[in-house]
Every structure is written in structure tokens, then in C-alpha cells.
Specification:
The chain contains 4 helices and no strands. It is mainly alpha-helical. It folds into 2 domains: about 55 residues; about 80 residues.
Length: about 130
């Protein structure tokens, strides 16, 4: 530690003492110097990019970090439209399956009628075969 005698603004020293209760004058000066150094280091980070502008990614979403959710309405409508199309396609497939089942049922009914006609032409009845 270095021992230094300095003249300090008494109002600033009182404000710092109010904020950092229980700290000695020496500790307050050390805190202030540490903060000053941290601020200087942050400033030098901008110089690394040879720019005074803050570089922020275009897709950076500060609201998402706060827990909010941003929704792209156009994308949402597209997703809903795609889902509805898939549902309609599913209903069409079900309808096609039901029509095929109905056709198959009709074919089976026709086959049974043909068998009944054959039995009647044969001269027997269904009861003869049971």
C-alpha cells in the first residue's frame, strides 16, 4: 500500500460515505479508483473495434431476454395455414377411405346376391348347406 496525502472534495466524500456505509476514507478511495479503472477498460473495448458505435447483432432481441415473446405474425399465419391444409388433407384421406369401404361393402353385397341366385338356380336353398 502507498501512503498519499490528498485534498478531497468533502461533499463527494460524504456522499460516498453515505452510499458505502462503514467504509473508511481509504477504502472509499480504493473503491473509486477500482471503478475508474473498470470504466477505462470498458471504454477500451470500443477502441478494439475502431468505432464509437456500439455493435449489436441485427437479430438481437432484448425483449426475449426480459421474458417477453415476440411473434412474427406473418410466420404465425403461415404456420396456421399449413396446419389447416394438413387437416383438410387428412379429412380428404378419411373420406376416400370411407368411399372405398362403401364400394367394398357394395361389392360384397353383390357377391352375396350372386351366391343366393346361384343357390336358387341350383335347386337348393341356403338351409341345405347348414
Amino acid at each position: 500500500m502507498a501512503k498519499v496525502t490528498v485534498d478531497l472534495n468533502s461533499r463527494l466524500l460524504e456522499k460516498a460515505a453515505d452510499i458505502f456505509k462503514g467504509k473508511t476514507r481509504s477504502e472509499l478511495i480504493s473503491i473509486a479508483l477500482a471503478e475508474l479503472i473498470d470504466k477505462y477498460k470498458q471504454k477500451n473495448l470500443y477502441e478494439l473495434f475502431d468505432s464509437d458505435e456500439i455493435l449489436i447483432a441485427k437479430d438481437y432481441n432484448y425483449k426475449a431476454l426480459r421474458g417477453g415473446v415476440l411473434i412474427d405474425v406473418d410466420d404465425s399465419f403461415d404456420v396456421i395455414e399449413d396446419s389447416l391444409t394438413e387437416i383438410e388433407d387428412g379429412f380428404d384421406e378419411i373420406e376416400d377411405s370411407l368411399n372405398e369401404a362403401e364400394d367394398t361393402s357394395d361389392e360384397i353385397e353383390d357377391m352375396l346376391l350372386d351366391i343366393e341366385d346361384s343357390l336358387n338356380n341350383f335347386g337348393g336353398s341356403e338351409d341345405d348347406f347348414s
